[in-house]
Write a structure and sequence with these properties.
Radius of gyration: 20 Å
Order of helices and strands: EHEHEHEHHEHEHHHEHHH
Strand content: 5-15%
Length: about 325
């Protein structure tokens, strides 16, 4: 029997690169920051709790990371604090900024605690502001301030962390509006930035095993929720937060990045392109795989017979995603 081994590429060297990752106290933002610093970058991370941010720094020290992590307490709902963040980076790094990752998002609890409610049963003012003030408006502000540092240097990369919710219904309409807005932000801003050699794109992770996701899983299990087994399978075969960090690290040194500016990129495609695996050595299941589609169709038993490499093309996946609108179970008792 002949066995073929995949040669895994080395992580890039990012020494001298200056980065900002917003919302990096935990989850995806933290995972991105850890990978950037491990590869040698200088990385400013933001969040509302300085102690939590400093704990990320301690983790970098424990790993003996080659780069430098700089925690900055910043509420991205406060314009002055955001402005001060970029002014500080400009002053401390002689005007250099190579990467901005827009990841800050403050509405996870609001969304997960109201999955059974219709949008009209929620306070429209609170829902809109909590989801899209930081998750959309702030991203545009950060992108604008970052661009002012990048354009004079004719070099830079801005990444909005997106979601499948930008293309199809996911949990709440306001969430989808925000994610769709982030994708369009990258697309439209890239038009004006292209001849300045500054790239702007959206990055869609798949299911990520963040701390909040694992807490949500416990909630579904405690409620004996009908979607628990399906969701558990997806999360169990999903990504670690640092998988997204590996995507970002490779994108930062990609000499042909301008070919992808304005596009939506999937983490699974980037892993194949740059030839890397997750931090535990695993390869997360692609959302484009037939295996994942079987799960989405509530046919978990089929996953045992479908090879992981069997996937549909990206264009077909996005088309199917728009057709496969799955509305989470709502509490209909109020309207019966």
């Amino acid at each position: 029997m002949v066995v073929f081994y995949q040669k895994i590429s080395k992580m890039p060297k990012l020494h001298g690169q200056v980065c900002i990752v917003t919302g990096a106290s935990r989850g995806i933002g933290k995972g991105i920051a850890l990978q950037l610093v491990e590869c040698g970058a200088t990385c400013y991370i933001t969040g509302r709790n300085i102690e939590t941010l400093q704990s990320v720094g301690k983790e970098c020290e424990a790993r003996h990371c080659e780069g430098k992590l700089i925690p900055v307490e910043c509420d991205h709902g406060e314009d002055e604090e955001v402005t001060q963040l970029f002014a500080r980076v400009e002053a401390e790094q002689c005007g250099r900024l190579d990467l901005l990752v827009n990841n800050a998002f403050q509405a996870v609890n609001l969304i997960t605690e109201n999955t059974t409610k219709y949008f009209w049963d929620l306070d429209p003012f609170q829902t809109w502001d909590e989801i899209n003030n930081v998750g959309l408006r702030n991203n545009y502000i950060c992108a604008t301030l970052a661009t002012r540092l990048m354009v004079p240097k004719r070099k830079g990369l801005i990444i909005n962390i997106g979601s499948f919710g930008g293309l199809t219904y996911l949990v709440n309409p306001v969430y989808g509006i925000g994610k769709c807005g982030n994708d369009r932000m990258a697309s439209d801003c890239s038009v004006e930035l292209k001849d300045k050699n500054v790239a702007f794109l959206s990055l869609w992770p798949s299911a990520v095993r963040t701390e909040l996701m694992m807490q949500y899983m416990q909630k579904l299990e405690a409620e004996n929720h009908p979607d628990f087994q399906k969701t558990k399978w997806i999360v169990d075969h999903g990504e670690s937060p640092e998988y997204v960090g590996k995507c970002v690290s490779h994108l930062l040194v990609d000499k042909n990045i301008m070919k992808d500016t304005g596009k939506i990129l999937l983490s699974c495609d980037l892993a194949s392109k740059y030839n890397f695996v997750d931090v535990d050595g695993s390869t997360p299941i692609s959302p484009k795989s037939f295996k994942m589609m079987a799960v989405g169709a509530d046919q978990l038993w089929l996953t045992k017979f479908i090879p992981s490499w069997l996937r549909v093309p990206t264009w077909l996946f996005k088309w199917l995603l728009q057709l496969a609108t799955v509305v989470q179970i709502k509490d209909k008792s109020k309207y019966e």
